[in-house]
Amino acid sequence: MDLEKWIPGLKKREEMLSYLEIDSVEDLFADLPFKTELSLDSGKDEKLVKREVLERLKKNVDVVSFLGCCVYQIYVPPLVKNLCSRSEFLTSYTPYQAENMQGILQGLFEFQSLVAELTGMDIVNSSVYDGATALGEGALMAGRINEKNEILVPELYWEKRSVLENYLTGSSMKIVEYPLVEGKIDLDILSQFVTDQTSCIYYELPNLYGLIDEGAYKLKEFNALVMVGVNPLLLSVIKPPEADIIVGEGQILGLDPSFGGPLLGIMGCKKDHIRQMPGRLVGMTKDADGKRAFCLTLQTREQHIRRERALSNLCTSQTLCALACAIYIELLGARGLKKLASELMTKTKYLMDGIASLGDFKAPAFSGEYFNEFPVESGSGWEGINAYLLENGVQGGQVLDNSNISLIAVSEEHTLKDLDRLVKLLEEFK
Question: Fewer Cβ close by (within 10 Å): the C or N end of the chain?
Answer without folding.
Answer: N
